[in-house]
Amino acid sequence: MTRPPGGGVDRAELARRVVALVRDPLLRVVTVSDLGVLRGVAVDAAGHVTVELTPTYGGCPAVAAIRVAIRAELRAAGFDRVDVVTLLVPAWSSDWITPEGRRKLARHGIAPPSSAPNHDRSTPLCLGPLRPAVRCPRCRSLRTREVARYGPTACTELRSCRDCRESFAHVKEV
After folding, report:
1. CA distance 167 to 145
2. Residue 118 CA to chain centroid, in angstroms?
3. pLDDT digits (tens, 9 = 90+) for 109-131
4. Whole-number Å distance between alpha carbons of 94 and 97
5. Rounded to an integer, what is the distance from CA 137 to the centroid of its chain?
6. What digits encode the pLDDT tens for the residues 1-36?
7. What's the chain's Rg over C-alpha atoms?
8. Which of 100, 112, 159, 168 has the highest CB neighbour number within 10 Å of its CB?
C-alpha cells in the first residue's frame, strides 16, 4: 500500500477498501469482492472515483442496488464524485469467486460452485455426468439433486440432499 506525504492511507487504496466491503444484495453473506464482481477501483488526481463491476450475468437485478450501495459508502468515506461502470466483457465467471467467498457461502448453507465449464470452443469427451456433483453444505454428502433450476437468485439453483434431507441453494457454474 502506498502512503501519501503525512502518513495517511492512499486515497485509491482507501476507495478500494471501502468498495471491497460492499455486500452483494442478493447473496448477503459475500461482498462484491468475494463474489468477484468488483473489477477495479481508480481515483484520479481530482479525487473522482471510478468503480468497475462485472455482474454475474448481463440482466442481474442486483447491479442497481450495488451501484447505490457503492456510491453511499464512498460518499460516507469522503468521496463526492463517483462513477460506477458496468463491464460485460469479459463475462463474469464463477471461477472469480474468491476462496474466502466460497468459504462464506458454504458456512452459510449455500453450496459454492465447482470449476466453471471450459469455454475454449473445444468439445471435451464426457462419458460421465455432464454436471459436477454438488456437495451439501450442511452434511457434506454428494448425494444431492436439483429441485429447481433457479433458486432465490438467477445465478443459483435449488437443491436437496438425499442424506440429511435439507434443501439448499447452489451457486451455478458459469
Report:
1. 10
2. 19
3. 999 998 755 555 555 555 555 66
4. 6
5. 18
6. 444 444 456 999 999 999 999 999 999 999 999 999
7. 19
8. 168
Matching residue, cell 495517511: 8
| Total-model pTM | 0.78
pLDDT reading at 172 higher than 80: yes
Closest CA to 9 of 52, 53, 43, 37: 43
Which residues, 6+ apart, have CB-to-CB distance to 162 below 8 Å? 141, 143, 144, 145
Handedness of CA 94, 97, 99, 102 (dihedral sign): negative
CA–CA dist 143, 93 (Å, integer): 25
Distance in Å from the first CA to the final CA of the chain? 33
Copy the grid coordinates of residue 62: 442486483
Contact 24, 96 (CB under 8 A): no
Instruction: Annotate 95-119 with DSSP letters as a single string.
Output: GGS-HHHHHHHHHTTEEPP-SPPP-
DSSP-derived 3-state class of residue 17: helix
